[in-house]
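Re: the 323-residue chain
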Amino acid sequence: MPSSKRGWVGGLVTCVIPLGVGLGGVLGAFMGPGQWRLLFLIGLAPALIVLLVRLWVPESPRWLVRQGRYDEARKSLAWALQVDPKALPMPDARTLGEPVKTNWFDLFKYPRSLAVSWLGNAGAQTGAYGISLWAPTLFVLILKVSPQEASKMFILLTVSGFIGRLCFSYLSEKIGRRNCGGLLGFGAAVLIVLAGYNYNTMIFGVSAFWLILAAAMFFVDGGFAIVGPYAAEVWPSHLRTSGMGSAYGFGGIGKIIGPLGLAMIVGSSNFVKPDVPLDAIPLAFVYLGAWFALAGVVYYFLGIETKGKSIEQIDKELGVARA
């Protein structure tokens, strides 16, 4: 993608994720409690598309060049441009230099990239998974609704997250990645804490907890249009896939420390689900909000602005910073 559209398109790619979550909510709302096996089967079917992608889509031309596979790189670029490979010049090995050999430990040579991508992912994922996994159960506990009704209520949160991803994809090219990262973290932190302190408040007969969580998901889920693509942009090109993958993997600890931390804070013996006293919910949501605040601080104050910069420009800046 051209540099001027990389953030916009990268964010749009993530927009299909809440559509899948929303589909799960719809199916959970209208399928009977004994049909969970069918729900699993439906969830498995789209994964088969991955096999088609593996067979159809070639490797990145940049990656192939770094491996010294110049003829394959030309064919890959021709595939993307939809032209005959012979219409493109063969990459010049003398100009491009020797193939780059990468080592996973090279990630630690770029501490700023490491901190931004790893800590940003950890903050965003801990808060997001805490909300996504807890919200339906909390609707049942607080609002005394059935699991099917809770699934229907979660659809609004999913729609808000989808709209958020569209907006953050657009804003990434307008106000920059750092500003969007700060907006994600601080916006989510404020609304999550506000939801926690209004868990038992009603507005015109409607749960304020539900409505505030829906507004929060604009930032909580919408911000992932920045989290994923930005985690790749802050690394030099030869470490981009390793850096992004490691950041998302490190952030995955949030799936554990989210519910575990909440259970420890409120003194619950159940580390898996929110089996907690209702009056402990505000403190639990402060805990989640703190993780979002961490993400906001990391992105805004430590982030490397990549808006409108080519891959080569980013590599050069990171190389200067390293020196």
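The first strand starts at residue 202 and ends at 203.
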